[in-house]
Amino acid sequence: MSDKSLVPGLFDGSAESVKLAPKVLLHDHLDGGLRPGTVLELADACGWSLPADTEEDLARWFRESADSGTLVRYLETFEHTVAVMQTPEGLERVARECVADLADDGVVYAEVRFAPEQHLERGLTLDEVVEHVLEGFRAGESEARAAGRDIRIGCLLTAMRHAARSREIAELAVRFRDRGVVGFDIAGAEAGNPPSRHLDAFEYTRAANAHFTIHAGEAFGLPSIHEAVAFCGADRLGHGVRILDDIVLGENGEPRLGLLASYVRDKRIPLELCPSSNVQTGAVLTLAEHPFDLLARLRFRVTVNTDNRLMSDTTMTKEMVQLADMFGYGWADLERFTINAMKSAFLPFDQRLELIDDVIKPGYAVLIG
Known about the structure:
single chain, 369 residues, alpha/beta, TIM Barrel, 8-stranded parallel sheet, two-stranded antiparallel sheet, globular, A_deaminase, Metal_Hydrolase, zinc ion binding, 2'-deoxyadenosine deaminase activity, metal-binding
């Protein structure tokens, strides 16, 4: 990989410099990125009880609760964010603020996902839930543009893998694909809920010539990745961090790829890696042990993502800075990871090229000098 000497005197790894870089985000959960103050205000409006009553204390509670080291416990924190996203006003506000926060962080394109089936407790229909979120995204894009920050948001509709509505959500995603929804996803605890359980939804999506990603290889391992790729035909892997289990270091230290790892690399299946979240959920023990750098050196299509900005107290800038500090990356590396993500986005090819050629490359050229 590159090191900081590639651009002497320019790349200092600071948040101030990295924040200026154009970024592309493929794996970000809407209900995992609320502002603590917004959670407090919406909870007060709907009568929901929270575990803390100040922004600082609530932010700390989310971070500490998410630091459990298990995916199941990590997912329990969403009870509170989902609870305050049950009304048109709540959904639109959270979506609008999501765009503002990402734009402020230098993100130029993001695919933000959420599970419509979790927002029906106050009488909204699935279609109404999606409409309100998309309205919030559109408002956020307009406000960002007026402030001089161009950002585009694509929406991914997620089905919960422990439930039985995946086909319905896949149909919803296809129904809204000309109105801002760019793809389909499944999420939730992997153990006991294999991707193949939702094969009907994936077959429907493929038949409709639509895109989908699958949460796989975050907390379970190679069987989940294998099913997502071989049986379901995933366009991307949500996390995919445990592909590491199919890579063996030989006696000389040289990595040797198994058949699944080779297939994922050869087919250029993107990995939506989320370093901070992967440590929190126990997918890896520490950032130093994260396979991001190994996978990058082996030329897998790695991308940098936030997963849940509230629970991980993170941003794209923070994720890039910590990776640069840990593995010695320079601007050329961060640019490559960003282009990897843009190549992998669920946008038409010409629009991806336009963002790469007109926004990302010029943005990094200014930083590199």
